[in-house]
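Record 1 of the preview.
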Amino acid sequence: MKLCRFMKCFAILVLLITSHSFIATAFSNANAFNDINPSTTWYVDDNGGADYTCIQDAIDNASDGDTIFVYGGIYTELINVDKSLDLVGEDKNSTVINGAGQGQPVRVWASNVSFQGFNVLNGIDDGYSAGINVYGKHVHVSDCIVQANDCGFRLTFTDDIIVDNCTIRTNSAHSIYVIVSSNVSIRDCDVYRNGDEEGSIPGGILISTDSEYATQSNIYIHNCKIHDNALCGIAIGDAWSELGYKDIYIENNNIYNNTDKGIVVWDSEVIIRYNFIHDNGYDSSTSSGIYLQECKGSVLIEQNRIISNNKFGVYLMRSYDNTIRYNNFIDNKYDAFFRYPEKSSFSNNWEGNYWDNQLLPGCKIIWGRCDLRQKSGITIILPFFNIDRHPSSDPYDIP
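->
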């Protein structure tokens, strides 16, 4: 018995010594790793007294994983972020990256980059460039002002991008231009007064694609104010490509006072819901709160407040089999209109909307037209209608 008790005690002692040795080795290895790969915070001040006076010098001398903190000041330079870094401005109002019209103020080539707290302005106005141009993946831009550039942002051939809590204003072209990119979240931004004064370039958020590449997907625009932009607040897809985008979500935005249209969708799969879409457009032929073109069973318009748009609340051009349900249509000049080509299904699915000008009890007539092209080349225009068979008698309480 004594021998058994001794052997048990000995085994426990060996176990404790071994465990202690393993833990000590693990801590030693962790410390050795940290010693080999330490992260460093570098400081930049244009007045001197810090590690660097230029942001690009700090980037050039930093290593992946480092942080660069930039004190308030005016940094007239064009920066290229080619490492995985956290760049932090002291204050977005006073930490200015000024492109001075010479090029693109910020270009992000690397992946795993965080960029926050800067005022990015005066990029070159060449019809192509941007204040912040992102090529890398897994990039987060937050709490910035982006103004007086060509485009505000350009997100090109990239993936997993977040733009949040940014003010994007007075850029001469698009506020945010997303091209051939996926998994993009644009949230809690104030987007206004973008686009050219002549109204030939849309100033809002433009999501486009390229006929040479596969359809991109998973774009989220939510909790933004998008207003007073040239032509439209949001445009998805384009008239010359048949690819479009998939899984686009436009939710909980306030979209107003854009000069022609609030939201434009070409041939894309989009969900538009919980938005306040109001006071868009002027009295042109297709000005509207929401405009669909070539959308065939691909769009859901649900639980929006579509109010006081200056021509149409919703306009559907050569678009059919889409669903428009549980929205409030109030005080638009015309709540809805559609235009179908021949050989289409001649119908969209209208269900349970509130119409402030409903004339017939129990149903709402939505008027439109059908264009029948004859062999002679003449097009016969026929009036046509859809029906909302279960309209709501009271407006919905949509937050």
